[in-house]
Amino acid sequence: MVKVALTVEGEADEVIAALRQLAIGDATPSSPAVLTADDNVDEPAEQPSAQPQAPAPTPVPEGRWTIEHVRTFWGFLAPDAREIYQSVAKSAGYVTSRRALLDEMHLTVRQLSGRLSSQGHAVRRIRRAHNVALPHPMSFDSQADEYRMLPDVADAIVRLNL
């Protein structure tokens, strides 16, 4: 935990100038900042590179859904979203119309969307947990007004009896 105590005293314009100087990181901790009206505080001072630049993160490889990915994803998915996933996974062709899903789950469009919001979080967590970029397991086709699940994901849900 860092604790900083700061006292600034002086005329208003001197205080403002001193705070600007601190903000750009030009004051040294061992000596107080003393500024005059001639000091140019609008130009940031050149800072020596104190820390080496971190290497750029390596890109996450694209991947396909595996049973292990689905099992992990299922653990991250909210229980309400799991019910929706089960329904779509068991449907013919892994496709369900929105109306059929709303009727089956006794939900409004807003409630359905809210329950599915956890899938985005779960996909991001899978990316970190398995270091792989996976496509969203289920998407909504607004033209056809239906939800479509990737066959690999649907098959794993059924096979794992989730």
Question: Quick recap of the structure?
Answer:
The protein has 162 residues and is mainly α.
Please tell me about this protein's structure.
With 162 residues, the chain is mainly α. It folds into two domains: 1-45, no CATH class; 67-159, Arc Repressor Mutant, subunit A (Orthogonal Bundle). 44% of the residues lie in helices and 7% in strands. The chain has helices at residues 12-23, 67-76, 79-89, 98-105, 109-116, 118-130, 151-159, and strands spanning 95-97, 138-141, 146-149. The longest helix has 13 residues, at 118-130. The protein is elongated, with a radius of gyration of 28 Å. Mean pLDDT is 81; it is low at 29-33.
Keywords for this entry:
7 helices; mainly alpha; 162 residues; 2 domains; Arc Repressor Mutant, subunit A; three-stranded antiparallel β-sheet; elongated; 44% helix
State the distance separating the first and last CA atoms.
44 Å
User: What is the rounded Rg?
Assistant: 28 Å
The overall number of domains is 2
With helices defined by DSSP (H or I, 4 residues minimum), what is the helix count? 7
What's the β-strand tally?
3
The oligomeric state of the chains shown is: single chain
- Helix content bin: 40-55%
Helix and strand layout, with pairings?
Blueprint: H1 12-23, H2 67-76, H3 79-89, E1 95-97, H4 98-105, H5 109-116, H6 118-130, E2 138-141, E3 146-149, H7 151-159
Antiparallel strand pairs: 1-3, 2-3
Helix pairs in contact: 2-6, 3-7
